[in-house]
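pipeline: protein-struct stage 2 | run 1193 | Glycoside hydrolase family 5 domain-containing protein
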Amino acid sequence: MLTCSTGDMWRWSVLLLLSVAAAQRAALVDRSKLPLHTKGRYIVNVNNERVKWACINWAGAYSRPAVVGGLEVQDLSKLAGRIRELGFNCVRLCYSTENHLSNPLVNDEDVAANPDLKGKRFLYIFQRTVQALTNEGLMVILNNHISKSGWCCNVKQDEGFWYTDLYPEKFWLESLVGMTTLFRNNSLVVAFDIRNEPHDIPGRQMTWGTDDAADWKAAAERAGNAILDVNPNLLIVVSALCFCMDLRPVKQYPIQFSVANRLVYETHNYIEFQVATLASNNFFSWAKVHENTAWILGTLVILDLACMWTWYRMGQPWPRKSTLLALVSGWASFFMAVLAGVCFFGYYFYTMYCSYVAKNYFLPWGIALSAGCLLLLLLGAWAACIGLRIQTSENCGVVPEVCEDVCIGDSCDEDEKSLSSDFSDFAVDYPGVRKDRIPGFAREPGFASLSLAKEYCLGRKRHLPPPSPPHWDCGMLLFLQIFMFLSVCTLLASVLLVFSHLADTFWYVRFVFDTKWGFALAEGFPYTAPVWMGEFGQQVRGSYWLNMLRYLAERDIDFAYWPLNGKKYSEGYFSSSGGFVYWDQPRWEDESFGLLMNDSWSVRHTWKLLDIQALMDSPVKWTPQDYPCIRQQLGSACGY
């Protein structure tokens, strides 16, 4: 009798899933319909039929080993075939300017499974890699990743620009033209991604459309035109600013090449690019924030209602207009000062790697809010001067409400009525309150009249009508301060409640992506062009991953997952201060985002492959809706 253990059943289930997955593949491009060009937001062939890039990044040739990863354990041609079997139709092949121009000798141990590649240099092995991929019918997108060979990318590195002190722009252009010349007779080398993740570096800010040495748009056009002079059939891939995150400057200054319909924009996204999701994945749970904020908001609403009920019971008294204006102006200026502080903090933060966003979005808002804060402060000070200083009767014609208690002559009818009424104790000298009247003058009770607020809000006089405005103002001012403080807290809690609900949702991700780069997919604009998600990756199937897939699916976006590799070459790490700390010896480390395992053959996460393959159709037939797991806090690993 045939029996099957639980472990056997699991292995057979995985094999079944992989066999189903293998049947779902992106369509290989028809060589007879090449070259490619762009039409609106799509990449198309010579018959104007959509060609969707469903790519994988194959890393390694930009690092010190100067060779793609995996050749130490797998035959090159078999590994290229494995990429095709997994369903991809193209590969983003990254290299460094240094490796290209210096053409270093590759260590034999890094190509141990390929005896014919031992003792060879970078360019020979790189050409063999391209040949192996295109022999499988896979499109190749060349990518000039960095200048100096090594790991990329950190905000403190000098690799944010397309040039460095060691490798000025002429070397970059030389490399682009040299690679183009090398592969111009291979029709499946369909595009050139001219630079990876441009961004500001310490002491140097990148611009767009300024036509100077820091202008990425001008540099991209120079590079693209130089490539097209050699091979006009290539597509030119231009990365967005700010680590490939922001395309907004193209609205005003779109890229223009010497050959039309050759432009593809590129964007990247990782969880660290989404601050709200990153926070919930590493520090706290938005669900807990939402729950706690709801309780706080409920308490604040009850206190607000209690204040309003007390005010209603007191006969709905109002302070003088000048007092109210001073109070509202003060709170509004404080609120605007807080918002201005947030904007200036954002400006400071973004100037470290994305001065375009800092200068065009955070700085203008910070200045506007600061100006508004100053104006409100001046308005409040003016109102306070009118409402709280000693006033003469000559001012009554200008601001009559401040003169309600001015006594003409030696007697004051209102005071006499007060003294003869049931409320004669209004004239009692409470601490800080002046009872006497000076003919022709009005004097405020002073800031120490807390007893008025206590007596008429909570004390024995709470059932009596409020006193005359001059005596009441300070007590009413205190009451209004409490009410407005609670109101501001209620407003802030409401904002936090809404944001904590939306922070990990697809709606928020879609809003951010559409704002920063998704707009370029809209047809009919001067800036309309294909947008390629050139890098994204994750090791857990949580909210970041599923929101990302849903956006790529709904917008039917070309993509390239990062990376294929099961291992990555590491020379050290960047410390919290931004400095690079070298290991005693370089070493190979596990690549947690890798599609394959360390044997460069087995699939690391079955769910990941299945999700990626679902994106390969055009239009996409499956979109994630019901999320099986939301990674909400540190330690709650989602995935299989």
